[in-house]
């Protein structure tokens, strides 16, 4: 598989323009890194997956994974914009020619941001088929009512990919039918049926709760066929898990490099602390975990690009990578001792940021349930 060394090098150069003090300031202020996201867009990285005919780079998903991994490895936070990578697939695969022509070129230039993903609800969580937000056809529009939570970057996005119920659950022919996907123009929706409420969290993730009160969405903004939205969203979830797994691998590499460097330089009792096995071993174990996760990510990307079923690899990659980045973060803090908790070292910030991925976008327990049922053939647990 292509390692995209040239792209990684250029991404690293861009990231070096946004050092730790930039991210610490954003973290303190709970501010969105607009400058960083704009720079990525202007350099074309957020258009990596958009076909060349629409102004993008036309890269396969492994190219997007390389970009996101390098962002994390350089100490930056791709969580501010990574959704554009994995949301893109639904529009690319299932959008109409008119929708692609209308939106993709402007997304490619950075004029429009496609960052918000409205799926999760307060009462249903990861039980997506139980969502209650409705979209009812009324002439040339759909009227949307309901509520979403953990809709990150809603305040900083021009477009939202929204999953809503268009057929009552009890009337749907199949359990997985009756849900539809819409492209919502946030610029006209806010204040006209859409309300956004920020949620304060342990890391600066710009996440929100959104409320729909008779929001009118043009029927022309329906993506694909009505009632088939869950299938469309599901096809993008494996891409989402692989890309976030790549980010976690990048985080793990950052932590390992940071811990190894400090262990070589820090001298106590007339010897570098890295000479002690008690310091060496956690870092070495974290490296081994990272490499195992990295290989699973690569296998998942290979199968995804080959058009093969990739549910097993995508889920395992995401779980292993999230655990590897957490283990590397733990080793890094322990290696630095008290300095690991000092904001100026950036470790505690990265530690908080990478902890998210054992819960989102899918929790470790849900992944284990998937493996148990769909790989091992054990009885369904939920």
Please bin the fraction of helical residues. Answer: 40-55%
Q: Count the helices. How many?
A: 12
Helix and strand sequence: HHHHHHEEEEEHEEEHEEHHHH
Main sheet properties:
4 strands, mixed
**What is the mean pLDDT?**
96
As a percent range, the share of strand residues is: 5-15%
Uncertain runs = none
Tell me the Rg in angstroms: 21 Å
**What's the count of strands?**
10
Shape: globular
Distance between the termini: 37 Å
Q: Strand arrangement, largest sheet? A: 1-4-5-8
Helix/strand class: alpha+beta
What's a concise summary of this model?
With 382 residues, this protein is of the alpha+beta class. The chain contains twelve helices and ten strands.
């Amino acid at each position: 598989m292509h390692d995209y060394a040239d792209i990684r090098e250029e991404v690293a150069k861009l990231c070096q323009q946004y050092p730790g003090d930039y991210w610490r300031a954003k973290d303190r202020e709970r501010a969105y890194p607009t400058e960083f996201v704009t720079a990525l867009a202007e350099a074309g990285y957020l258009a990596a997956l958009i076909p060349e005919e629409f102004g993008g780079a036309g890269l396969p998903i492994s190219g997007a994974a390389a970009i996101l991994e390098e962002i994390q490895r350089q100490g930056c936070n791709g969580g501010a914009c990574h959704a554009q990578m994995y949301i893109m697939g639904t529009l690319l695969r299932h959008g109409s020619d008119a929708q692609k022509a209308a939106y993709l070129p402007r997304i490619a230039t950075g004029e429009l941001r496609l960052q918000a993903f409205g799926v999760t609800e307060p009462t249903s969580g990861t039980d997506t088929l139980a969502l209650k937000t409705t979209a009812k056809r009324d002439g040339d529009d759909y009227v949307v009512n309901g509520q979403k939570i953990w809709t990150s970057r809603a305040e900083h996005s021009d477009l939202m990919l929204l999953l809503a119920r268009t057929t009552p659950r009890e009337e749907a022919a199949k359990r997985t039918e009756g849900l539809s996907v819409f492209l919502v123009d946030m610029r006209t929706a806010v204040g006209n049926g859409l309300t956004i409420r920020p949620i304060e969290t342990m890391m600066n993730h710009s996440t929100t709760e959104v409320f729909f009160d008779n929001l009118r969405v043009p029927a022309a903004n329906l993506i694909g066929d009505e009632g088939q939205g869950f299938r469309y969203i599901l096809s993008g979830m494996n891409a989402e898990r692989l890309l976030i797994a790549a980010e976690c691998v990048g985080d793990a590499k950052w932590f390992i490099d940071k811990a190894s460097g400090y262990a070589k330089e820090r001298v106590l009792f007339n010897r570098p602390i890295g000479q002690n096995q008690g310091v060496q071993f956690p870092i070495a174990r974290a490296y081994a975990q990272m490499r195992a996760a990295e290989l699973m990510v690569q296998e998942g990307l290979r199968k995804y690009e080959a058009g093969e079923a990739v549910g097993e690899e995508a889920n395992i990659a995401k779980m292993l990578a999230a655990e590897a980045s957490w283990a590397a973060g733990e080793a890094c803090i322990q290696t630095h001792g008290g300095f690991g908790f000092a904001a100026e070292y950036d470790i505690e910030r990265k530690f908080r940021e990478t902890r998210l991925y054992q819960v989102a976008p899918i929790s470790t327990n849900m992944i284990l349930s998937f493996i148990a049922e769909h790989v091992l053939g054990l009885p369904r647990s939920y």
